[in-house]
Amino acid sequence: MADKLIITLAQLNQKVGDLAANAAAMLATRSKAMHSDLIVFPEMQLIGYPPEDLILKPALIERAAVELEKMAQVTADGGPAMLVGSVFVRDGALHNGVALLDQGRIVATRFKYELPNYGTFDEKRLFLPGPLPEPVPFRGAILGLPICEDIWHPDVCRHLAQLGAEIFVCVNGSPYEIDKDVLRIDGVAKRRAIDTGIPLAYVNRVGGQDEIVFDGASFVVGPEGALWVQLPDWEEAVVDTVWNKVPFGHGHRWRCEAGDVADLAEHPEDIYAAMVMALRDYVNKNRFPGVLLGLSGGIDSALCAAIAVDALGAERVWCVMLPSRYTSQESLDDAAGCAQMLGVRLDTVPISPAVDGFTQMLAPLFEGRAPDLTEENLQSRIRGTTLMALSNKFGPMLVTTGNKSEMSVGYATIYGDMNGGYNPLKDAYKTTVFAISRWRNAHRPKIGLGPDGPVMPERVIAKPPSAELRPDQKDEDSLPPYDVLDAILLGLVEHEKSVDQIAAEGFERATVERIERLLHLAEYKRRQAPPGVKLGMRNFGRDRRYPITQGFRTA
């Protein structure tokens, strides 16, 4: 019976559906850790997570079984075993599970018992829950193998403990949300460890997948709640944890040697890192050569340019200024200053010829009607068409730059500034945009490829936001101040509060009623918006799914 184990935690990225590449990455990790007893990979690492309806393709399930068997055969060399997440078919039903590969074969499989079906998760639509899992004997230890959601409820860990589990090894596909790392460790993992008296190793993936991003931050906690090992966030990491069998009472228990405890990104660096990693993986995994964006001289586009440079490097970011007759010299100067600070290419394409052309073309039909929002939106749509033309001609993906405050109330032009392939700010309120911009001007993120020092002129952050679609226009001509607007939206969107509840908190009732009305009216726009990284508890899309056509109001 062994009295020492090396369990390697492999916090890796993955690409959904690329089974061969995912398997190759795991085997490459194993080849560098031949000293280990067990290498643990994140949830569904072979398939990728979340697989959504791709998991319903029989061909994918068949290939996954073949790849898993090939991986198992590799372990016939007597080296480390592997704990690999995949999809499994039992009695015609699909299960999210893990397989223990050792001695050339699949020696055990365990299925997820608690299937999450909230927010970004939709697992009950795809999988059936497995039975309460039994522990797995492994090289002198007895392992409990809860899968992600299984540890968010006490039953699975208590069941495993009652059956003699000595170490919990929990594989996860836990997406980033603000303050999620604290919740995972203090609110969940430590509770399970203290409740059962069993240490817990938690392995999470890292990387972006469409609208969600995984922050890694894997860890090991002891039965007293102590943090024994902490892997870094926002980067791949492969870390050995050393376990020793030590006397305890009339028997023994397993204890992990204290290892490195990495510092995790604090707020708001975590938000910025999420944006960078999500954009980086979206562009690279979809094989775009780079990105293109309209740089207006305002804070939203300046921040998106900084995120893009930190994600991809300045050489893969192309900025275009699209001035109209309402564009101020200050905006021209600020856009140029931002581009210079970031080291990106900046071209200028005046839109006045196109505006004049459309004005003349539509003049017979518009005769007798005063200029209004139509002419303002026309400018935005000309900009959107111009940027899409450059994207089509040269290949870079167009980045959309609207923030969540604007998207909430429809302060954006469909087929105009909403054009693009991905929006880093989609789940960031305007007040968050200000905070992140100030942070990035004073700090460089550890995963960033951009420059040290400021990335935008200070005036970009300080000046009143404006769409510059008419003379002397300011956002606050149409909207409440952003600190007020965002507080109301947090109540309406994140917390589903009524108008009465928010008004009772001190906000002007008429303003709250107006914002609720705008929020519902803009639903059709949001359905046609590009994807963007989820940051908070309820993003538009995966978390908050409202009907477009509906008549309910809380006022």
Q: Provide the helix percentage.
A: 25-40%
Indicate the mean pLDDT: 95
- The low-confidence runs, each spanning 5 or more residues with pLDDT under 50, are none
Helix tally equals 16
Strand content: 15-25%
In terms of quaternary structure, the protein is single chain
Beta strand count: 19
What Rg, in angstroms, do the CA atoms define? 26 Å
Report, as a whole number of angstroms, the end-to-end distance.
Answer: 68 Å
Q: Strand pairing plus helix content: what structural class?
A: alpha/beta
> Major sheet: size, sense and barrel closure?
7 strands, mixed
Specify the overall morphology: elongated
Strand order of the largest sheet: 5-4-3-2-1-14-15
Structural features, described:
Helices cover 36% and strands 19% of the residues. By secondary structure, the chain is of the alpha/beta class. The strands form four sheets. The protein has a seven-stranded mixed sheet. Strands 6-7-8-9-12-13 form a six-stranded mixed sheet. The protein has a four-stranded parallel sheet with strand order 18-17-16-19, with helices on both faces. The protein is elongated. The termini are far apart. 49% of the residues are buried. The model has no long low-confidence stretch (mean pLDDT 95).
List keywords for this structure.
single chain, 555 residues, alpha/beta, seven-stranded mixed sheet, six-stranded mixed sheet, 19% strand
Report a brief summary of the structure:
By secondary structure, the chain is α/β, with parallel strands linked by helices.
Write the layout of secondary structure elements.
Blueprint: E1 4-11, H1 19-31, E2 38-40, H2 58-74, E3 81-90, E4 93-102, E5 105-111, E6 136-138, E7 141-144, H3 154-162, E8 167-172, H4 180-196, E9 200-204, E10 206-209, E11 212-215, E12 219-221, E13 227-230, E14 237-248, E15 251-256, H5 269-285, E16 291-294, H6 299-312, E17 317-321, H7 329-342, E18 345-348, H8 352-366, H9 373-394, E19 397-398, H10 404-409, H11 430-442, H12 458-462, H13 482-494, H14 499-504, H15 509-521, H16 523-527
Helix pairs in contact: 1-2, 5-6, 6-7, 6-11, 8-9
